[in-house]
Structure formats: structure tokens, C-alpha cells
Design brief:
The protein has 289 residues and is an alpha/beta fold. It has helices at residues 21-30, 66-80, 104-114, 133-138, 153-166, 183-188, 209-215, 251-274, and strands at 9-16, 34-44, 49-58, 83-88, 94-99, 121-127, 143-145, 171-174, 193-197, 220-227, 237-244, 278-281, 284-287. Helix 3 crosses helix 8 (251-274).
């Protein structure tokens, strides 16, 4: 069987916008009996960038095997100036999840993993506390306790990177990890570190956000998932959601509702990244649905 048993492929690409990109890619596949299952594209007129996500499979006898498919596509990609990736459709990116003491986001991700509803493989959990060891190990995921303070932060973050390398993990997911990453670590994980923030950014940053939101009588609360950058809570946004509240909501109500939103928003962001639907576009993202 050609394609070495790969049932489908996901091609993602971005480049400077120009005429002929879609024609070149679709023509390439047509010449090799590639059958397109789904295609989404976006041309950003402000940045001059073009983005494409295309899912395809073998549609006839001329479809090449894995090595030939990549090799044949490389000259076309070079001629069009493409930044591209070709991935088997069922491949799931490997991710390490970092947590502190709050369990709601980790529990949600692990449940989705267990029910095969998450397009990512959680290969390890790392924490600066030992609180959630039982939850991770109950799900059969290795747990690593790496305490951190001002004196050992560099060593602890180096251990996180070493763990990711050993586990062959592409992404670090901060699932209510209550530590600010150093500029060195954010640089090492640029475009590969996902955070969930307890607010519909921008607003109510820092400690006790729900208390301050309650004091202001907010009518909407939310959560934001974003890539981590050296600018605290200013990274490119992946996913957001809000819920309406009113004057009857107590601080405890806001915390309960907020935790639910955080879990849902983080899971959507992780799933989108896992399905290769996210593209960085300068300080923003393009997220295909």
C-alpha cells in the first residue's frame, strides 16, 4: 500500500501572498492522484501573508509514498517561498503540562485525553508542588515534582526543557501554572508554550482577579488562551470565551464559573494546536475552524 498506511495528510503552509499558490499546490496533488478532503485558506491584506491548511489522501495509483511525497513537494515549496509542514492526519503532537495546585484545567485535559477527545498526547505532568501527583498518575501520566524558588529557577526551568526533550514533547501547556517563566525559557519555547489566563484579556491581570472583578461589578467574565511571550499575558491569542453574570454573583460564583471557562478555553486551544489549525501571524494568530 502506498503512503505506508497513512490514511490522510495535513499540509500547512504560510508565505508572502502572491498569485498562484493554491493553483500550484492543488495542481501538485492532482498530478499525483491526491484527493483533497478539506481546504481552508486566508490572505491577510494587512501583513501580506497567506495561510493554508489542506487535508488530503491517496486518490489513485500515482500517489507517492511518504519520502517521495515530501521530496517531490520540496522544489515547489522552494519556488513559492513556503514555510510548510506535512504531517500524517492522525499524528498527535506530544505535550508536557505544567500545573501548580489548581486541578480544574489538568483534570479536564486528562479526561479529554482518556476519552480520545483531544488532538494531543499528554506525555508528562510537571509541577512546582506535589499536590496533583495522584490525579496524573491515576490517568497513567508520569508526574514530575520540580520545586522552584528564586534561587533555583534557572535549574528548574532547565529541568523542564530536559524533560521535554527526553519525552520528545513539542509543546509546554501551562494549565494554571502559577509561575512566571523567565525570558530565556519563553525564548526557547517561542510558539510552543500555551497558557490559560483567568480573564478575557486585557483586564484584571495579576492576583485575585475575581475579587477585583466583583468589586467592579462586572457583567462578563472570561478566559483567554494564548502563546507565552516575554511580555506577561501579552502573547498571541489562541482562544477566548465569556459568560454573562449579574449583581447576584458572589466571588465564589465568579471563581466557579471562571474555572469552567478556563478549562474549556484551554482545551479548545490545545485541540486547535494539535490539529495544526493555528498559525502565527506577527503578534496575532490565524486559527482555522
Amino acid at each position: 500500500m502506498k503512503g505506508r498506511g497513512v490514511s490522510s495528510w495535513i499540509l500547512t503552509l504560510t508565505c508572502a501572498d502572491r498569485v498562484g499558490i493554491v493553483a500550484g499546490v492543488s495542481g501538485f496533488l492532482a498530478d499525483r492522484d491526491g484527493f483533497i478532503l478539506d481546504s481552508q485558506q486566508y490572505a491577510d491584506l494587512e501583513t501580506g501573508r497567506f495561510f493554508l491548511r489542506l487535508v488530503f489522501q491517496a486518490g489513485g495509483p500515482r500517489f507517492p509514498d511518504d519520502e517521495a511525497l515530501r521530496g517531490d513537494f520540496a522544489p515547489l515549496a522552494a519556488s513559492l517561498g513556503l514555510d510548510w509542514s506535512l504531517t500524517p492526519g492522525d499524528a498527535r503532537p506530544r505535550m508536557v503540562v505544567a500545573v501548580s495546585k489548581g486541578s480544574h484545567c489538568l483534570a479536564d485535559l486528562l479526561h479529554r485525553r482518556a476519552s480520545n477527545a483531544l488532538a494531543a498526547e499528554i506525555v508528562a505532568v510537571v509541577s512546582n508542588h506535589d499536590t496533583l501527583r495522584g490525579l496524573a498518575e491515576w490517568h497513567g501520566v508520569p508526574f514530575h515534582h520540580l520545586p522552584v524558588d528564586a534561587a533555583n529557577r534557572a535549574e528548574q526551568e532547565a529541568a523542564i526543557l530536559a524533560l521535554m526533550a527526553e519525552a520528545q514533547a513539542e509543546y509546554l501547556v501551562l494549565a494554571r501554572y502559577m509561575q512566571v517563566l523567565s525570558p530565556a525559557l519563553t525564548a526557547a519555547l517561542a510558539g510552543r508554550c500555551i497558557n490559560i489566563h483567568h480573564s478575557f484579556l486585557p483586564g484584571f491581570k495579576g492576583a485575585q482577579p475575581y475579587h477585583r472583578a466583583h468589586a467592579r461589578g462586572v457583567k462578563l467574565i472570561g478566559a483567554t488562551a494564548h502563546f507565552v511571550t516575554a511580555d506577561l499575558d501579552e502573547g498571541p491569542i489562541l482562544e477566548q470565551a465569556v459568560e454573562r453574570v449579574d449583581h447576584r454573583a458572589t466571588v465564589d460564583d465568579l471563581i466557579r464559573i471562571g474555572r469552567d471557562i478556563e478549562a474549556r478555553v484551554l482545551a479548545r486551544a490545545v485541540h486547535a494546536v494539535g490539529e495544526h489549525r493555528v498559525f502565527l501571524n506577527q503578534g496575532k494568530t490565524v486559527v482555522f475552524q
